[in-house]
Amino acid sequence: MKFPMVDLHGQYLKIKDEVDAAMAAVIADSAFINGRAVTDFQQSLAQYLGCRHVVTCGNGTDALQIALLALNLQPGDEVITTPFTFVATAEAAAILGLKPVFVDVDPHTYNINVSQIEAAVTPRTRAILPVHLFGQCADMEPLLVIARRHHLFVIEDACQAIGAEYTFSDGRKCKAGTMGDIGCTSFFPSKNLGCFGDGGALFTQDDNLALCIRSIANHGSVEKYHHERLGMNSRLDTLQAAVLQVKLSHLDEYTVARQQAAMTYNRFLSDDERWQVPALSPNSTHVFHQYTLRLADGRLRADLQSRLKSAGIASAIYYPVPLHLQAAYANLDYRRGDLPAAEQLADTVLSLPMHTELSETQIAEICLSLKG
Ligand SMILES: *Cc1c(COP(=O)(O)O)cnc(C)c1O
Question: Which residue, by CA, sits nearest to atom 10 of ligand 1?
Fold first, then answer.
């Protein structure tokens, strides 16, 4: 592909000296597990987010599972979430015997439709798990009001939105993942802050929860060989932490590069009745993990994709099947038609290449091909 969805190598080359030196230092030190770079990175990220605690772990899926365990949710407890997301969001709950309850999405922002949450609350509901999809925060202020009213925990899936900022009606600004009880993120290579393998983290402002999260990620142990609860083995490698420390210092530049790429796409693609460019939420910045169009007619999608492909341009469908219609969740007894906005999006979205290395000329070429 001439224009892939992401360009990790191009991004690496620009910071090669810094990253290579950081990795060489870890190798020289050979503290591969829980080395100094891990604690340093946790502190740096906590400071960047304005959050009391950052606990790193093995990946974003583990982060979500550790969060649900730390809140002591029990089998049969219900977790309200969105059907229009990567499977890990609901999987983390289901694998623990919790019941995902899907609430439809807002067709413009693609995020959970907060006005429909309250109707899904039952006596078994224990938590709301919003996803800040494609880089834009879900509407957290009314969501937190509902959570407080019904005594529900809030776990934010911020895997796609690190660095996005939500503004409350009183003017207070919070970074994605720091507004609920626990925030989760992923450092998968293609994420906005990606490492060179797998990685993840949890964020919390609560000292006790932070202790509990640390213990769960470490076999349920605080003191070595003493285990007070069931836990997991989920760690960020020292090498990955060293890479992330370097990349964190570039994250704001990366975000600006993505936002500029999105604005350039918008310039070429808005005012075409065949699609709608991504809608901006009034109270969140957008860090454009994905640049996702909504087609007026989903039947055009295959043609558009093959036209792009023959010009050497990648495109992707995030996500082609909403979670309530996946075979793995058939036991939840949803039917097509239950969550129409999510189903409509699954049939009509199309994501274009989005990364930190896209130039204006490249975007112009992509748009020219798309327009045909
Ligand atoms: C990537 C992602 C995850 C899972 O992260 P991994 O590090 O791949 O386990 C979870 N939720 C969302 C929304 C994601 O995009």
Answer: 88
273 CA from centroid of ligand 1 (Å)? 32
- What is the distance in A from the centroid of ligand 1 to the CA of 88? 6
Report angle CA 131, 134, 135 to the nearest 5 degrees.
85
Token digits of residue 15: 């910071």
pLDDT by residue for the chain (372 residues), tens digit each?
899 999 999 999 999 999 999 999 999 999 999 999 999 999 999 999 999 999 999 999 999 999 999 999 999 999 999 999 999 999 999 999 999 999 999 999 999 999 999 999 999 999 999 999 999 999 999 999 999 999 999 999 999 999 999 999 999 999 999 999 999 999 999 999 999 999 999 999 999 999 999 999 999 999 999 999 999 999 999 999 999 999 999 999 999 999 999 999 999 999 999 999 999 999 999 999 999 999 999 999 999 999 999 999 999 999 999 999 999 999 999 999 999 999 999 999 999 999 999 999 999 999 999 999
> CA geometry: angle at 8 spanning 48 and 249, to 5°?
20
The CA–CA distances, whole Å, from 66 to 101, 193, 200, 304 equal 19, 20, 11, 40
Radius of gyration, alpha carbons of the chain = 20
pTM: 0.98
CA of 204 relative to ligand 1 center, distance in Å: 18
Tell me the CA end-to-end span of the chain in Å, nearest whole number.
18
Residue with the two structure tokens 């310039």: 267
- Do 227 and 220 touch, CB atoms closer than 8 A? yes
